Amino acid sequence: MKAVSSKRKDRLENKKRKMAALVNITQLNEYDRANNKTKMARLEETSTIIEDSNQTKPEPSTKKVKISHNTEKSPCDPGPPLIGDLGPSGKPKLNGAEFSELKKMLRNKTNRIRQQPCFRLRDMGENASVALDLELRMPLFLSDLQHLIMYSQIGPHSPYSPARWCALDKYNKLANFNLLIVENVSLYHFSAHESMFPNLNNFTHQLEVVTPKAYMSDIVRDLSMVPLTDRTWYPGTQMKKFVDKFGTLESAVTQSTEVFDTLKNSFPIERTEEDADQHNGNVAVADKFSRTKLLLSGWQMVEENFPLPIKGLMERKYRGYVLTKDLYGDVTPSSPMYALDCEMCRTSTGDLELTRVSVVDENLKTFYDTLVKPDNKIVDYLTQYSGINAKMMKNVTKKLADVQQDLRRLLPKDAIIVGQSLSNDFHALKMMHPYVIDTSVIFNLTGDRTRKTKLQTLTREFLRERIQESKKGHCSTEDSLACMKLTQLKLKKSVFYGDAVMGGGNDVRAYPDMATSQYATSMLRQCAKMDSTVHVAGVDELAAKYRFYVDKNAEGRGDGQITFASAHTNDGVVEDLCRNAGKHNVNIGHVRVSDGDLCDISRSETFRVIDNWTKKLNDSCKMPSLNVVLLGGHQDSGNGVCFMFLKKEFIK
């Protein structure tokens, strides 16, 4: 017999040990299964005994028993109503009266929440928040607040919407709109002494507002006067009424108590008698209406992101920008037009910098055309868009400052600059100009003012010409020429020609003479249109100024819907405002803080008093109400700040 090797013996021994271990595991499993069966049988027997005991003993026991979800409950305690089976999601299903009652309760709560007004900021409003860094902040204008006040009372019937910067849902559910204006106190005062304004700090929104003093105006005037509008979504009943009754808007200014002539501008404008005569004269021979009607208004320039010489912005956002003139003449129907276009290349900073400027005059002749050497190295010529290449820029020495000086010297003081999306060109030039016509605004094929139509499309549709098709890229002279032709074409047609937003097309239509932002009506009258009542309280002569902008010939206290009150002290104004806060739909209180009250000795007490005024106003108004406190800004210490808080019921 052959002997078994030692390795084989080891393998056999390992197999025996494994088999023995498997037998032991099998025996243990059988033992566990037998024990489990015994336990289950005992549990079933115990359950049967308990059920039999409950059936033979109907009397409730005072002893607490375990229920299925492991909580203790006394049989004497009725507890919550029983619920039904679990639904597909695993949650209990409610049935019967309890379910109907719960649905009704939730429905009523939802309806109450939905019926409450809601105020929220849009992007432009968020950009004005004082929580943002100074360099990123873009302040609002007083006209933005004016639009919100009107919308809070007459909603979509308002001539202007606040949708640019905020949204107010369920405006008609507001009980009051309360506004406290504190003149001569600025954002700087608030920021430097924030701890002294605990009540103002509780307001939901804190937004920077450009002080009217920065553009040579005042708060009462800016807040009270609403420029007449010619938008089709707001039927021109006002202008048509005035034109039909008085012949022209100029006549309405002198004969009506409701129309005002207002010319405000942040640019230094010198108006001579000669300019006034030209302004009242006939339009240019080739024009069917005054070219001044195509000028962008102040709020449009803000909307289109034009650089403006406003105190606060000049030191931050527009540092290094210059005016096209030190002193401007008044724009007239015969003011000359110049079409401008710029080309840019990308430089080592990652930004676009100016590389070419072209200007065309009304005779379609090149007025100015030059290449510009950027301050930084060009890393991308963007030839397919700019038409600029390295060969063209090889010997260029003219810098941006040279171009600025050339344009300042060559342009007339009343020049009207024409162009497509002109704000981009002015930012490239780092220049500011008051009189602009933007072809991307006066022409529109989309029907939506925020969706611009390209210059190439406008030229093809209205001029039957083709531009920007060269493989060498765009040409600034060609683009500026197209802008001039488009503007001249519109002047031969009508204000509405080529503008789908205003209801115009390619046809010529007859329209009544339309107004510009030079003419205005009363904001308070707008608020009182839908049977709303307005109350204004002002210190000293301020109430009389508000009254003037309601009715130029007013001598009484108001007409019932609009009332005025004057007080000799700021505290008297605040008391009157709080007393009337629950009686009128719009309540305005206007106080003025003297420079003496802002000196080092009195400053702390002054700020404490102002903060207490806001608390009094908030406590005295009804719910829901939109409460606004405006620190109007200071001539020397910068812009104002607007605090907003929607006071409404908390629904549990």
Low-confidence residue ranges:
67-73, 231-236, 505-517
Rg result: 38 Å
Continuous helix count = 20
CATH homologous superfamily assignment of the domain at 263-492: Ribonuclease H-like superfamily/Ribonuclease H
Distance between the termini: 97 Å
Second-tier CATH architecture of the domain at 263-492: 2-Layer Sandwich
Tell me roughly what share of residues is in helical segments. Answer: 25-40%
How much of the sequence lies in strands comes to: 15-25%
The biggest beta sheet reads: 7 strands, mixed
Secondary-structure class: alpha/beta
Index terms:
Exonuclease domain-containing protein; 20 helices; Alkaline Phosphatase, subunit A; Nucleotidyltransferase, domain 5; RNaseH-like_sf; 24 strands; REX1-like_exo; 6-stranded mixed beta sheet; alpha/beta; Ribonucl_H; single chain
Q: Would you kindly provide a brief summary of this structure?
A:
The chain is α/β, with parallel strands linked by helices and 652 residues long. It contains 20 helices and 24 strands.
Description:
It holds the Pfam family RNase_T. InterPro entries: REX1-like_exo, REXO1/3/4-like, Ribonucl_H, RNaseH-like_sf, RNaseH_sf. Its main location: nucleus. One of its GO terms (cellular component) is nucleus. Belongs to the REXO1/REXO3 family. Among the domains are: 221 residues, Alkaline Phosphatase, subunit A (3-Layer(aba) Sandwich), CATH 3.40.720; 230 residues, Ribonuclease H-like superfamily/Ribonuclease H (Nucleotidyltransferase, domain 5, 2-Layer Sandwich), CATH 3.30.420.10. It is extended and about 115 Å long. The protein has a seven-stranded mixed beta sheet with strand order 6-24-23-5-22-20-21, with helices on both faces. Strands 12, 13, 14, 15, 16 and 18 form a six-stranded mixed beta sheet that branches. The protein is built from 20 helices and 24 strands. The chain is of the alpha/beta class and 652 residues long. About 4% of the residues have low confidence. The protein starts with 5 loop residues before the first helix and ends in a 5-residue tail after the last strand.
